[in-house]
Design goal:
- The chain has about 230 residues and is of the alpha/beta class.
- The protein has one domain (about 5-225): Metallo-dependent phosphatases (Purple Acid Phosphatase, chain A, domain 2, 4-Layer Sandwich), CATH 3.60.21.
- It has seven helices and eleven strands.
- The chain has helices at about 20-30, 55-70, 85-90, 120-125, 125-140, 145-155, 155-175; strands at about 5, 40, 75, 95, 100-105, 105-110, 180-185, 190, 200, 210-215, 220-225.
- Helix 1 (about 20-30) runs parallel beside helix 2 (about 55-70) and helix 5 runs antiparallel to helix 6 (about 145-155).
- The chain is globular, with a radius of gyration of 17 Å.
- The protein binds manganese (II) ion.
- Manganese (II) ion binds near residues 80 and 113.
Length: about 230
Amino acid sequence: MYDAVVISDIHLGSDNCQAKYLVHFLGEVRRGAMQTKRLILNGDVFDSIDFRRLKKHHWGILSELRKLSDEIEVVWINGNHDGPSEIVSHLLGVRCADEMIVESGGRKLLFLHGHRFDQFITRYPVLTWMADRLYRFLQRLDKSHDFAKFAKRKSKMFLRCAQKIEHDAVRYAAKRGCDAVCCGHTHLPVANTAGPVRYFNSGCWTEKPCHYLTVLDGTVSVCAYTEDVPALV
Ligand SMILES: [Mn+2]
């Protein structure tokens, strides 16, 4: 049984949210096909607090999360898109936090969304908005998402930003005496085990394939969710 399963950046309410995959994934956790002591939602569960944008499958995810929280510990960590924690906490029926530490296999693992280390979104809000629009447009053009993914990973602006978040998160985790830090926010799945403090990023659920982290005896793994989902009715 895993000490934790971690997902982030679901962006419920956005049109690129891979909700049907996530309903399937959460169902597997709840039915025990993937057994874990806790589920950590590492920020940006919602795309905005405009709940009119939530579609049927998006409400299905909230319902799965509520059911899961009756059986295992579900913790939601605040992201920059989520809105007031009192509202989210009520909607999901789960505990909210800005960050959390989990002890696993004698190691201290720190979980936080990572937007606090991102100065780009506060310094250049318009550019951030435009880059996001462009990215979503590319995703719509090419349903495989390969081209949008390629464009993002070639963007120097994006890579610099992702590296800064990694660097600052590792430094902060070291200060707190942790062995590893797990972030979200950049939507880029990462496992960097080279340094004394390891860095992981859980990727997102707005790009195919979707990613998640598993934590077992102090070891964090980045996994892609590739389960074939039956066609939607
Ligand atoms: Mn974010």
